[in-house]
Amino acid sequence: MKKIDIGIDEKDREKIAAGLKHLLADSYTLYLQTHNFHWNVTGPLFRELHLMFEEQYTELADAVDDIAERIRTLGVAAPGTYQAFAQLSSIEEVVEIPAAEDMVKILTKGHERVIKTCRDVLKSAQKGEDESTIALVSDRMRVHEKTAWMLRATSSK
């Protein structure tokens, strides 16, 4: 790749990109989990949760593209395999199909985890004075905070 001269030190770019890889992995894992729950939710809240989960995984599908493209903009290869995502993600995979109420709890926890990953990336981006990553990550954090709130509001417990 040609030399990148965008006003961010190479070491800072690499550190920011490393954090973004974790954010990408967390976001993609949460996308898969949400899509799985969309397909498999049952019970009295089926329609409401089915539609809510669809909105959420659709939003996440766009987000992973933005995050991966930011990694590439910083001059680093974006991970794109299940194996890489499994190694990088801090979100636990759910093997079984949980009850609808548990799906809501699991997704809430997942969004809260992504928020924490965002906060970690934000620190690196601020240190490297990377305004573009700061804006992207701040926007992602806001979406996940709102989604977690909405999921918590859906839960009866």
TrEMBL record:
Pfam families: Ferritin (PF00210). Residues 18-154 form the Ferritin/DPS domain. It comes from the Bacteria. InterPro entries: DPS_DNA-bd (IPR002177), DPS_DNA-bd_CS (IPR023188), Ferritin-like (IPR012347), Ferritin-like_SF (IPR009078), Ferritin_DPS_dom (IPR008331). Belongs to the Dps family. This is DNA starvation/stationary phase protection protein. It comes from Microbulbifer spongiae.
